[in-house]
Structure formats: C-alpha cells, structure tokens
Amino acid sequence: MIGEGQIGGRQLLLILFIMRATIGIAFLPIVTVAGPMEDAWLAGFGAAIGSALIALVVGSLSSKFPTQTVVEFAQELLGTVFGKIVSLIFLWVFLFVAAVDVRMYGEVLVTAFLPETPLFFVIAVMVVVSSYAAYQGIEVMGRTADFIFPVFVLMILTTTVAAVPSINWGRLQPIAAKGIRPILRASITPTFIALQVMTLPVLLPRVSKPEKATAYAVWAVVLASFLLIPTSIVTIGVLGADLASRSVFPFFNLARAVRISEFLERLEALVVFPWGLGLFVAVSIYLYCGAKSLAQVLNIKDYRPLIPPMAVVWVAMSIQVSADMFELGRFFLPEVLGPFALTLIAVPHGLLWLAYGVRKLKKKGN
Fold it and tell me: Domain extents for the chain?
C-alpha cells in the first residue's frame, strides 16, 4: 500500500498560498466585486487581516489536537454522532469550493481556447489528473507544490510587470474618495475565499511540525492577499475601474489587452497556465481531504477507494453548480458569499471551540 507520507511547514505554506492565490488572481482581483472603484486595490489590506483571523480561528483549534484530523477530534469533543455531523460541513466545503474552482477554469478554457470541446470533458480531465495526485498521498502533493510555486509566481509577476507600461495612473485616482465603507465591502469576498483554510484540520496531522502549522497558514493567506494588490492596481490602471468591475475574469482580460511589442501581445497564456497548475494542487488537496475525512466518518481504514466515486460526484457537482458563469459570478457578491462563507466557518468552529472550552472548564473543576 502506498504510504501517505508527510509534508514540511514550508510545503503547507506553499499549498495554502497556491490554493488561495489561484482563485484570487484568476477570478477576483478585488474589482470584480467592488463595483467601479478606482481605489478597490486598497481592499487587499482588509482581506489580509480578515483572512489571517480566519486562519487563526481554524488553525488554533486544530493545533490543540496535532495528531488528529477534524473528524477525529470533533468526535472526541462532541460525541460520535454529533461529531460526525459537524464533520460533514467540512466535507461540503471541500466539495463545493472544488466544484466552483474547476467550473470557472473549465469555462475559461472552453470559451477562450477550446470552443468545440464539451465543458464536461475539460472538467473530467482536470479532476481525473488531480485524483491521481490525491491517490499518491500528501507527500507527493507537497513536492508538487514545491515545483509549481516558482512557476506560478513567476508567470503572475511577469504578466503584472508587463502590464505596467500600459497603466493609465489617472484611473487610480482619487484614492479613498468615497470613504472607507466601499473598501470594506470590497474586502468581504477576497476575505471569505479563505474557506480553503478549512483543509488545515485535515492536513495538520501530516505536517512534520504541527505546532507551527497555524503560523504557516496565516502567512500563506496574508501573502496571497497582498498578491491581489499589485494585480488589482494593474487591472484597474489598464482596463479602467468600470470595465474591470464588469469583467467576469478581469485579470485574464488584462493579459489579453497587454501588448509588449508589435510581435508580442495577448499574454493570456501566462495567466491560464499558472491558474491550471494552481488548480491542480487545489483540487488534489480537496480530493485528499474529502476522501480522508469521509473514510474516517465511515470508519474505513484506507481513503483511496473513495477517490474515484468522489471524483465522479465532483465532476457532476461542477456542472450543476450554476447555469453559467454569470450566475456563478453573482454568488461572489459580498452580500451573498459573505453570509454563506461566514456560516460555514462559524458554525462548526463555534461548536468545536465551545465544546473545547467546556471540557477545559470541567478539567479545572475536577
């Protein structure tokens, strides 16, 4: 049987960074949900703070049980039945977020590059490849993140730097003319796409130094949030706030608009390629965490036999998650995603933190 292996703290940081930055860069350079704001890039600072708080809430609880996944310590804190029920919330997060990520990438490939290819086929291929990585275990995924990270960052930065000469700096002014409220609203969506951090309570027992996992998670989401700032600046500066806010994939449209010379233009491959690499890491992690968690809920020793049926469910879910990209885009509006994600984070962690606090009080009383 193939062992699951372990990952180092650096690999955990890279995995979480890639998972968050992938959807943030490709779909949400803040202006997407901020409305026509010249200073929407300032929301990146609020997103960094909010994401760090989410990582602290999730990671601090998991670090209390460094040798157990969330399914195991949830049953210890809440009892077998209720603990498993709470664990199902995590399974839903893994399924839903992965389905959304894959659907968005599939839509871009089909629309821009493969118009004659069925969306189902594109999504199925991505999920099958990610399933193979999940089957190999967490150590393989950690090494994959090591390899992908420099390529991922280099291509994003290359696109960003290449767009700088095309920036109209006047489009970024005035700064904060509409006050702080619109900026805070704009930070809601990039904050709550930190749902990816909910994989940490499953990954933590496989981290070589679990006591440092929370710190690595915080750094991952903060650095990924700050990466949104320069990409948002160039997106607004090149496309303008109004056009950028109405684009489904603003950073992708930016890459299409950039022209370095007469012979070098339309750099969208520099966005699509790293996005695909990042998505591979993200979906393989979601599959691993989903199969691992479900195996523990069902008391199955090996998670691997669950990967193929889960992959089938995830392909179907990605197709059914929305009628089209415009409907999916409306889901990312702050007033929709904010309450949805807050509920998924607050309910299970609130119950687990409450149970942990009650147990600590009982021990002190004894």
Answer: 9-319
CA dihedral 11, 16, 22, 23 (to 10 degrees): 170
Q: What is the pLDDT of residues 275-305, one digit of tens each?
A: 788 888 999 999 999 999 999 999 998 999 9
Question: Please, which pLDDT band fits residue 325 given cuts at 50, 70 and 90?
Answer: confident
CB 227 within 8 A of CB 25: yes
Residue 182 corresponds to which amino acid? P
Tokens of 334: 């702050």
**Mean pLDDT, to the nearest integer, of 27-47?**
65
Class level of CATH domain 9-319: mainly alpha
Phi/psi at 324 (5° precision) = -160, 180
d(CA 197, CA 51): 9
Q: According to the model, what pLDDT value does residue 3 have?
A: 58
The answer to whether 51 and 20 have CB atoms below 8 angstroms apart is yes
Pairwise CA distance, residues 17 & 344, whole Å: 21
Q: How far is CA 334 from CA 45, 62, 295, in A?
A: 16, 28, 34
Written as one letter, the residue type at 256 is R
